[in-house]
Amino acid sequence: MKCQFCGNQDTRVIDTRPTEEGVAIRRRRLCDKCGKKFTTFEYAYNIPLMVIKRDGTRENFERNKILNGIVMSCNKRPITFGQIEGVVADIENNISSLMLKEVQSKQIGELVMQKLKLLDEVAYVRFASVYKQFKDIDTFFKELADLKTEKGKGH
């Protein structure tokens, strides 16, 4: 595995364990050249899943797109990377359990919003504002009001 810091090809595994969700193997690696440690995750190869975008185009499912969107939404929030990984793993498991070859991007976005709503309301609103493409401040305030109403109902 190539070192993400110096590009050296000689790295070694110093610790291996399954993730909490059991969907991947977490490996801690040490670069023999620069001495820095980094983490990699190993996943089982699955049949490629195609995502149907809003405009009808199709592209391969990319776990990192979900991960990056959630990381940005959770920026400066009291959320660990492990919690974020858990959310992404839950979303992946949910999608793969559907046993589909294609999935609408809307389904993925809705799953992300459901998980973020439970994890952190601020992260949820951040994600929703981009995902739902709020056109103006009234739309933003309506989303906040809906969230507050839903929270008041005990959901």
Largest sheet: 3 strands, antiparallel
Tell me the number of strands: 6
Q: How many alpha or pi helices?
A: 5
Strand content: 15-25%
Looking at how many chains there are and whether they match, the oligomeric state comes to single chain
* Terminal-residue CA separation: 44 Å
Pattern of helices and strands: EEEEEHHEHHH
Compute the CA-based radius of gyration. Answer: 18 Å
- Sheet/helix structural class: alpha+beta
Shape: globular
**How confident overall, as mean pLDDT?**
89
Low-confidence stretches: none
Spatial order of the strands forming the largest sheet? 1-2-3
Q: What is the helical fraction, as a range of percent?
A: 40-55%
Descriptive key words:
6 strands; three-stranded mixed beta sheet; 155 residues
Could you characterize the architecture of this molecule?
There is one protein chain. The chain is an alpha+beta fold. Helix content is 45%, strand content 21%. The strands form two sheets. A three-stranded antiparallel sheet has the order 1-2-3, with no helix packed on it. A three-stranded mixed sheet has the order 5-4-6. Strand 4 and strand 5 form a beta hairpin. Helix 2 (81-97) packs antiparallel against helix 3 and helix 3 (105-119) packs antiparallel against helix 4 (121-131). It is globular, with a radius of gyration of 18 Å. The N and C termini lie far apart (44 Å).
